[in-house]
């Protein structure tokens, strides 16, 4: 078997092969904008070839930026289009491609890679761990009223709910630049969020509101007229489905939620991407009105260079932690001393006794702060070597804002 990089001339073969791996057919023609593969970076894609030269597997990566705790924005490879034809599965093709890809990413100086897992049992063995979650929230229209806010500021004015801005409903085609600009502001302050490169917007790649599918967009503007949020939605068979609400603050989010929740002639409103623990449920006058479903993993993270990755993110408290990290897929096993002072970390190889022993995939789950170390200790994934290890690790990896990612790739 041969694994080789691709060029732009391989686009048709690559798209046909990855669709065949998933038992689907690509829309025709393959070339052109408006498809999810329109933003593929063919200089970062791989084809696995059988002995007779036939393509039997694919893998690729996007060039993203990932926002970390502490609002650090760093490069991250977005692994995508990974597939093997049914005729060649369980023959080592996938493992060979993943090993080849990881070597290329590390050789190029990258220290983080991320992906969305089609199946939860596949990617742990390659060192990826689920790092963010997302939920669907369904609200019946007749129970969708928002409660008046009870908290007030010291000056006596409502702390939330009184919105000095405005909401305007536009067609998707009328507000492309607004969506791109608002999303970029949002993702730079949201841990776990990925960038949406300009080529995604111009080529209309991905899912709505990037894709060319018809959508209405509620755009929120602050009091000064500057757009600071949007909600992309469509109505079908009496259900209003919100692709995503993007807002740079809670007031804009609340105004947009009120707009879609108050839509006439619908039976229910479905929010497709709500962070776990989001206050929207608490804002409803009827707390039981919202039904949570599809609480699922979303972004999976792999650390390609542990010291660089841990030094890149921000930290909420000071302390020292020794991590014994096993990477069985690449045959690596190292021990690191993590030292945090004033929100910044230094990470070096050490021979000190460990506080925690863990698999690299579990470190990926901890990395963005969405999973507490004590949770994985209780689950039997991580070994704590003394009673104080769990609370120490929880304090260090804690974040002031839960991570969330809604970008599909």
UniProtKB/TrEMBL annotation:
Alphabetical list of CDD domains matching this protein: NAT_SF
Pfam families referenced in this protein's UniProt entry, alphabetically: Acetyltransf_17 (PF17668), Acetyltransf_9 (PF13527), SCP2_2 (PF13530)
InterPro entries recorded: Acetyltransf_17 (IPR041380), Acetyltransferase_Eis (IPR051554), Acyl_CoA_acyltransferase (IPR016181), Eis_dom (IPR025559), GNAT_dom (IPR000182), NAcTrfase_Eis (IPR022902), SCP2_sterol-bd_dom_sf (IPR036527)
UniProt keywords, alphabetically: Acyltransferase, Transferase
Active site: 123, 409
Domain of life: Bacteria
N-acetyltransferase domain residues: 1-152
Annotated residues for binding of acetyl-CoA: 82-84, 90-95, 118-119
Gene3D superfamilies recorded: 3.40.630.30, SCP2 sterol-binding domain
PROSITE patterns: GNAT (PS51186)
Claim: Acyltransferase is one of the keywords in the record: yes
Family, per entry: Belongs to the acetyltransferase Eis family.
The protein's assembly and partners: Homohexamer; trimer of dimers.
HAMAP family: Eis (MF_01812)
Name this polypeptide is given: GNAT family N-acetyltransferase
